[in-house]
Design a protein that fits this description.
Order of helices and strands: EEEHEEHHEHEHEEEHEEHHHHHEHEHE
Structural class: alpha/beta
Shape: globular
Strand content: 15-25%
CATH topology of the largest domain: Cytidine Deaminase, domain 2
Strand order of the largest sheet: 3-8-7-6-4-5
Number of domains: 3
CATH architecture of the largest domain: 3-Layer(aba) Sandwich
CATH class of the largest domain: Alpha Beta
Number of helices: 13
Largest sheet: 6 strands, mixed
Length: 390
């Protein structure tokens, strides 16, 4: 099949809509559900992301996509006991692909609500079971076990979108798109991101451990499929904060840094031990945790709202306690899809525990950015690769 009619485009008023191939068949099959225009945009972008993560690291990879940018991306690095609890998988022995998905979904659970999932490897029954209990719109993977497909076909009253991607598909080197009736054409961005792009280190600190190299590659590959401007914080084999589509790079750094902070605050003992009621659904727990670690919790304490989710009123997570907990965060890697124009990005990154940086370089203020890294004994690699994505 080389053409598929869609219900509508980005919005219900945008009809007709379709996807098609000029030559050959579409490189995916619909195993369940009916794809929409945005579903397929998310599917094709997220598939490229997980495929490249697998190629770069050799590990199974997963991504959680929303509106053509990743909310999370990860590879199959085993979870610590703390992360198992924070991700609601305590005591569960996870398969590699399930581990990657749990990490990707756990990066930013608020943004992953209603996501599109991509897996680099076959979807097994365990991963499908985790997906079954999450609010998600669809999934793309190269294959599915019989048990996994049976589980996924029951999700969303049988309408959950399941796509099977041809892993051998290779697109034409030139890509085109239309804007306002004008056709744009460019060479597809097929640059390979490997450890070779992390060898130029202009900072005084040259130490770049293997785990940091892996995390920097995860950040950079994630940014390759994130709407620009974009910045990504990564740690332990996963993205922990992604800032997408901002006009100012420092706003990207702040947005992504705030998400990275929330990711780490979710691991604080007082958050892990919140007294949730047994009947509180997972999305409501995520919302409650987001409120609890934010400034809005004082408003929640002022009334009886806490009774909807907790068995007893939790103590306030004070600003001083949060600051002290965040100060223990270290070993974070930061990637940028283009150069940092000012040292203020590094100053903000440091507040979220960043020790390793990868950016394109080429700013007239590179010296200032390098000096700011040296001020905090950070290691920074200049990749000389820009990763704008629009």
């Amino acid at each position: 099949m080389n053409e598929m009619e869609l219900k509508y485009g980005c919005n219900p008023n945008q009809k007709p809509a379709r996807v098609f191939m000029k030559d050959g068949d579409l490189p995916f099959q619909v195993l369940n559900g009916k794809p929409g225009y945005i579903n397929l945009l998310d599917a094709m972008n997220s598939w490229q992301l997980v495929r490249e993560l697998k190629e770069a690291t050799g590990l199974p990879a997963a991504a959680s996509f929303k509106h053509v940018s990743p909310a999370g991306a990860a590879v199959a690095v085993p979870l610590s006991e703390t992360l198992q609890k924070a991700y609601f998988v305590e005591g569960v022995e996870l398969s590699p692909i399930a581990t990657a998905y749990i990490r990707a979904r756990g990066a930013d659970r608020m943004s992953s609500y209603g996501d599109f999932v991509a897996l680099s490897d076959e979807c097994d029954a365990q991963t499908a079971s985790f997906l079954q209990r999450e609010v998600s719109d669809g999934i793309i993977a190269p294959s599915y076990s019989d048990a996994a497909l049976e589980i996924l076909k029951t999700k969303r009253k049988g309408t959950y979108l399941v796509l099977q991607m041809d892993p051998d598909y290779k697109p034409e080197p030139l890509e085109t798109k239309q804007v306002f009736g004008i056709t744009f054409e460019q060479q597809r961005n097929e640059i390979a991101l490997t450890e070779d792009c992390l060898t130029e280190i202009p900072t005084k600190n040259k130490d770049l451990p293997a785990a940091a190299k892996r995390d920097l590659l995860i950040a950079l590959i994630t940014l390759k499929y994130t709407q620009s401007n974009s910045v990504c914080y990564a740690k332990d084999g996963q993205a922990i904060g992604i800032g997408a589509g901002q006009q100012s790079r420092v706003h990207c750094t702040r947005l992504a840094g705030n998400k990275a902070d929330i990711w780490y605050l979710r691991q604080a003992p007082q958050v892990l031990n919140l007294p949730f009621r047994d009947d509180v659904r997972r999305p409501d727990r995520d919302n409650a945790i987001d409120v609890y670690v934010g400034d809005e919790y004082m408003d929640l304490l002022g009334g009886d709202e806490w009774k909807r989710v907790f068995t007893e009123k939790p103590p306030v997570f004070t600003a001083e306690q949060k600051k002290a907990w965040l100060a223990t965060q270290t070993g974070v890697s930061l990637g940028s899809d283009a150069f940092f124009p000012f040292g203020d990005n590094i100053e903000r990154a440091r507040k979220s525990g960043v020790d390793y940086v990868a950016q394109a370089g080429g700013s007239i203020r590179d010296d200032n950015v390098i000096a700011t890294c040296d001020k905090y004994n950070m290691t920074m690699a200049m990749t000389h690769i820009r990763l704008f994505h629009h």
